[in-house]
Predict the 3D structure of the following.
Amino acid sequence: MSVRFFYKDIEFEGISEGGIRTCVIVKKFNLMFDIGYIHPERIHIPNVLLTHAHIDHIAGVPYYISQRSLRKLSPPNIYVHREIYEKLEQILKLFSELEGFDYEYNLQVVQGNETIFLNNNHNFKALLSNHRIPSQGYTIYEHVKKLKPEYLGLDGRDIAQKKMQGENLVNELDIPMVSFSGDTTIEYVLQNKDVMESKILFLECTYIDEVRSTSHARSWGHIHLDEIVQYASCFKNEKLVLMHFSKRYSARYIKEIVYKKVPDFLRDRVHCFL
């Protein structure tokens, strides 16, 4: 059963269960973050942004490629950390041999500061994260043009005239819209301004109570709810979507503990992806 979350005109669909499966689909951008599983009705989504190679985040890749081939869909684009590329390529070749037909796909390394364009108005970048194995998160940006401050008081005719005279009246900006952490430690947020300021941040929160301590979470490359509370003032996001909770917790318990621990000024912006 998929979970849905809406932010303005953006719909997020999928599921994220720590150690079990994670896949979050963003139809507006024609992509999915991770593919620990894939619903057959979402095979048509052409872009996959993989955070790391743990099986609960990557298991659906062969099935996804195979199904797209059977349905005669175009080769998908699968973006990965540079340390994943070679071994994943070997795995896919073996699956192709086992199935007896050629897998068609575009496996592409994406690294920090490299911009990948999704459409005319949106692009994404990978940001290195901190986990037990090589990993990275992703930020989607919206490319906007804003009138420079010195021209804000001009009427339409004056602006049109200055444009005809060849003046550059706008600043072009990339606004961080969506960040997706994958599995990581809290430093992924603290060391990346664009993550802290994304309109929407999907952030792993594997552990939430004292049964598993913060130090335990960190030793496994995960975030504890107590760390989110500790650094609550750093989150400038309009929505902070917590995901990847350990299966040891019930949905009811998660909501209860998150509501209890998160400070008032952040609580209304927090959503549990359950």
